[in-house]
Specification:
Blueprint lengths: L6 H6 L18 E8 L2 E8 H10 L1 H13 L8 H14 L2 E2 L8 E6 L8 E7 L26 H17 L7 E7 L7 H7 L8 E12 L3 E2 L3 E4 L1 E10 L3 E2 L9 H13 L1 H5 L6 E10 L5 E2 L2 E10 L2 H21 L3 E10 L2 E3 L1 H15 L18 H7 L2 E9 L21 H15 L2
Parallel strand pairs: 5-6, 5-7, 7-17
Antiparallel strand pairs: 1-2, 3-4, 4-6, 8-17, 9-16, 10-14, 10-15, 11-13, 12-14
This protein binds nickel (II) ion.
């Protein structure tokens, strides 16, 4: 019995599918037959792997319209009040439960499956904030908020998670347990994930997954790396304190610039000299401030920079090294060093078992060739690593946004970047498939 029904047409018409029960072998494609009610007429519809993508494709106009609205009204970290209102309104319209999480901005929704089962609780996360930079995408929906732009594609992530919500609401009879939808503020401000975690929104969550648009994979492709994928991002400041004086009488002064210069040179060699070769890490001095005149030795000099590591132990090692070098250089020249080391986000370490599940879901939903190798690890950072640190189980994967014809894709955080609407259905289908697989 091979009866097909065009599900995406039904979805486009906003007709609720009622699901069921029969499993029909259909060639080598795993299929489910469902009774579909349309105008009182019961028909059987074969819903197979690719039909999930088809149904996600049918949501593209809705999701693209949402994305364009968000893109036109971008809001920076912790100021996403209009974006939050839009998300909340859409979730309420879908009938998604909004959880009472105390947040300045951002929303956490929950969709509870009705299928009997173990009742797992998992989460999907989208970031919703924009960057403080001009929008030069040139589209009709370009930013109307001057100096703020969705140049990292978080408008796309938000639209995709709303599409996921729509499909999961239709699929509630096909999964058990609860899926939390985390619309997180302030990823760019590096602080949003902490707010969500501190509010207790993921305390009962077993694992969490998010996607990020990636201009170096084609539309229809996904990619991820197991284990260490992104770095920790810490910052440091050193105040080298000497004793000022006339530039012509250095013997009457203690020049902090000499000590700072010595420390900066040593810091630049710290990873190469002290970190095991197999581990990537970075110490970059990015600021130096000191002195006011060519003939005056200043009292103090300040310098600072960023520290990146893929391994938590290497991160500790680098912090200790910076403190030691600053103190050592200060002592060598008779100065005193004050070091402030600020821990940002930890390294992002993808759980290998969960990654297998994500990639398997991607292959099922998008096709066998959809999963592509990914360059990495990278020394960039993402506050999604805070969820993984807490839950011990999370995956951050990439969603291709490049067109076949893009020879040189526009990079993230570039003023000309605009998330590609064509990628939306592939993100939705992968996430929904993952939920259906995880929540049996
Ligand atoms: Ni981003």
């Amino acid at each position: 019995m091979q009866i097909y029904f065009c599900i995406h047409v039904l979805s486009a018409l906003n007709i609720q599918l009622s699901a069921i029960s029969l499993r029909i072998p259909l060639g080598n494609i795993e299929s489910q037959a469902r009774a579909v009610s349309l105008g009182g007429v019961e028909k059987l519809a074969a819903v197979n792997i690719s039909e999930l993508l088809t149904r996600a494709q049918a949501l593209k106009p809705y999701c693209a319209a949402i994305r364009h609205t968000i893109h036109q009204h971008p809001e920076p970290s912790f100021q996403e009040s209009e974006t939050t209102a839009l998300i909340r309104g859409e979730l309420e319209r879908m009938g998604v439960e909004i959880l009472p999480v105390d947040l300045p901005t951002g929303v956490v929704g929950a969709i509870r499956g009705t299928k009997p089962g173990p009742g797992r609780i998992t989460a999907l996360r989208a970031d919703i904030d924009a960057l403080k930079m001009p929008d030069l995408c040139g589209k009709a929906y370009a930013s109307q908020n001057e100096g703020v732009a969705h140049a990292c594609g978080h408008d796309g992530h938000t639209a995709i998670l709303l599409g996921v919500a729509k499909l999961l609401m239709e699929e509630r009879t096909h999964f058990s347990g609860t899926v939390k939808l985390v619309f997180q503020p302030a990823e760019e401000g590096i602080g949003g994930a902490r707010i969500i975690i501190d509010a207790g929104a993921v305390d009962d969550v077993e694992s969490i997954v998010c996607l990020h648009g990636w201009p170096y994979l084609k539309v229809g492709e996904i990619g991820a790396l197991g284990g260490k994928y992104m770095a920790s991002a810490d910052s440091f400041k050193v105040k080298m304190i000497g004793q000022g004086g006339h530039g012509c009488r250095p013997y009457k002064a203690v020049n902090p610039i000499t000590a700072a210069a010595s420390a900066i040179c040593a810091l630049s060699n710290l990873p190469a000299n002290e970190v095991v070769t197999a581990e990537q890490s970075v110490v970059s001095v990015c600021t130096v401030h000191g002195g006011s005149a060519f003939n005056v030795i200043p009292d103090t000099v300040e310098f600072g920079g960023t520290v990146r590591a893929l391994d938590p132990q290497v991160r500790d090692q680098l912090e200790a090294g910076i403190r030691r070098i600053a103190a050592g250089a200060a002592e060598m020249y008779g100065c005193r060093a004050e070091v402030v080391y600020i821990r940002g986000v930890p390294p992002l370490i993808n759980d290998p078992a969960l990654l297998d599940e994500v990639l398997a879901a991607g292959e099922k939903a998008l096709g066998k060739d959809a999963v592509r190798p990914l360059d990495g690890p990278v020394m960039g950072a993402e506050d999604f690593s805070l969820y993984i640190e807490k839950l011990k189980k999370g995956v951050f994967f990439r969603l291709g946004t490049a067109e076949e014809t893009d020879s040189e894709p526009v990079a993230l955080h570039n003023s000309h970047f605009d998330f590609n609407d064509e990628a939306i259905p592939y993100g939705i289908a992968t996430m929904v498939q993952l939920v259906l697989d995880q929540h049996q």
